[in-house]
Amino acid sequence: MSFSKFEDRVAAHLDAMSPAEQRVARVLLDAREEVLVASAASLAAKAETSDATVVRTVKSLGFEGMDELRRLLAAELKQSLTIANRLTETLREVGDDLHAAFNVTLDVHRDAIENLRRDITPEMFRTAVKLMASAKRIVISESDHQARSQRILRHSSAGLASTRIV
Hints:
The chain is mostly helical. 69% of the residues lie in helices and 2% in strands.
């Protein structure tokens, strides 16, 4: 059976999987970038199962092994990463429906916030703030979608009197 996207492949196999394999499949879906570099053991820890279950899940999804899965995910990620591709896909999804565009915008931001809550612990945030507060210089790379965040950082950096914001 041929699948156009990894999500489709997982959806087609999910009901036939054991609960542990389903957890692995969800980790594979939710952490695709990490899957590209993570070991089966680290993915297993994330899914609270064994590395053998990770390998079994990958094979039950129709892959020969982790390397084949990584190649497919890398190809999908490469294709979907450009801003132009994402914008084109979003515009195709919503068409002329302003209500749908509004909802998609909110969903994107909600997902980003949920990812931050999942991926960034309060301790990591504290560490980043401490590092920035003690830095002699902070270099900020300019891009359109980051411009507002950069202005906020520059404005709020008044408390970092000895830090140069570049």
